[in-house]
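User: For my dataset I need records formatted as: sequence, then structure tokens, nothing else. Please produce one.
Assistant:
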Amino acid sequence: MRHCIYPGTFDPITYGHIDVLARAAKLFDRVTVAIAENVGKEPLFTPEQRKQMAEESITDLSNVSVTTFGGLLVDFAVEQEAHAIIRGLRALSDFEFEFNMALMNRHLKPDLETIFVMPAEQFSYTSSTIVKQVARYGGDISNFVPPVVVTALKEVIH
């Protein structure tokens, strides 16, 4: 059974993330969304809140599960017996960072592949950071995130 890890902060999960996830779910028998616990980004939501929002947003993807992890991604992937890491690329600006991370991961675990997946064009400019900023100023974010995220952002920001 082919298994991949889709790691990230997911603070919060967006339709862009879900689009990449749905594409990965078609390519692999099993996909694990791996929400990073110990990130330097100072997330707005706790790992458990991010996990819950992700789970509620992907109920139609039967071969996908959601968990949290700490430490090195490659160690987590080996522990989970994953064959690959999925990373979303929205624009050229994402590529340099993701390319360097993929090379480091390959150095650490040569047998673990990184696969870059592009979301649909309408999500190419969407990020969790931008969504949070729009929400802070009262903008409509319902086209960018699932309803559970809209509700959670309203509760936290306002």
